[in-house]
Amino acid sequence: MNKITLLIHCKDQPNIIASVTNFMAINDGNIVYIDQHVDREQDIFFMRLECEFNSDSFSIENFKEAFSKSLAEKFELKWRMYSAERKPKMALFVSKYDHCLYDILGRYNSGELFLEIPFILSNHNDLRQIAESFNIPFYHVAVTKDNKHEAEKKQLELLESHNIDFVVLARYMQIVSNFIIDKYPNKVINIHHSFLPAFVGAKPYHSAFKRGVKIIGATSHYITEELDAGPIIEQDVAHVSHTHSISDLIAKGRDLEKIVLSNAIKLHANRKVMVFNNKTVIFS
Q1: Could you tell me whether strands 2-11 and 78-83 are parallel, antiparallel, or unpaired per DSSP bridges?
Q2: For tag attachment on the chain, is the N or C end more exposed, with fewer CB atoms within 10 Å?
């Protein structure tokens, strides 16, 4: 059985849903999931659809061409269509912190994540042993102020040679420049160890402790040129009190980081995220 996932956004207008579902029906498709959202302020229509086809002669390339000519041009759709059987390829960028890496690899090893991990890349060698224990290739690309552009050229070569679909910064402690971002727009996911936009910077838990906060949080988002300001995919919080020390806050924060990042990865890998004007629409 062939299964496709279709993501659409366009100017809101009558008859889009009926036209798309009818197109699936006349092409012998069986819709197994459909959801839609209209942003009233911007007058934009969003839709996600999953459809199955039993025919052995089904070709996704031919289907894309027919869809483009029949509907995409008529409604001026911005759309993406994926084979639901194809696992996206994800590269992991890490530095020295290992909690997110262990969590992701554990979920990956158990089959929880619908994706492939062709390699892990780091600007340090500290986590090489972890990658090797999971039988995943590890690349060390050192990054300094003097070699940053050359280092990112090596990174991009690796990404392209492995046909990587998206990148996850699992506590990668380097700023990624537009050289990479422009090649992977809305495809580089970061985990931020605070509840954006509060307490940004290197030691958010220390700042939170000094302010006597009652909640701490974590945010996963796509990276953009503006630091920590990209479209947000997932967030979560934990309640704390005056009895918690800085180390307690850090421990709770790391648990949040793991959960929030893994959820963001699942949403992206399962094609449930749509980005428009620096905001996301997240489908269930």
Answers
A1: antiparallel
A2: C
Are 26 and 63 in contact by the 8 Å Cβ rule? The answer is: no
Name residue, tokens 């992206």: 268
98 is catalytic: no
The Cα 106–Cα 68 span in angstroms is 40
Altogether, the residues listed in the chain come to a count of 284
Give whole-number Cα distances, 263 to 107, 152, 281, 282, in Å.
Answer: 11, 27, 15, 11
CA 214 – CA 276 distance, rounded (Å) = 32
DSSP secondary-structure letter at 116? B
The catalytically annotated residue of 12, 39, 228, 255 is 228
Q: Can you give the pLDDT at residue 212?
A: 83
Q: What is the pLDDT of residue 97?
A: 94
pLDDT in tens, 114-135: 999 999 999 999 999 999 999 9
Residues 6+ apart with CB under 8 A from 185: none
Bridge partners for 221 per DSSP? 190, 232
Chain mean position to CA 11? 25
Here the tokens at position 82 are 């994926």
Please check the confidence at residue 195 and state whether its pLDDT lies above 70.
no
Mean of per-residue pLDDT scores for the chain? 93
Record the tokens describing residue 186, joined without a space: 């809305």
CA dist 91 and 176 (Å) reads 14
What does the alpha-carbon distance between residue 271 and residue 269 come to, in Å, rounded to a whole number?
Answer: 5
User: Which one-letter DSSP state was computed for residue 243?
Assistant: T
The pLDDT of residue 117 is 98
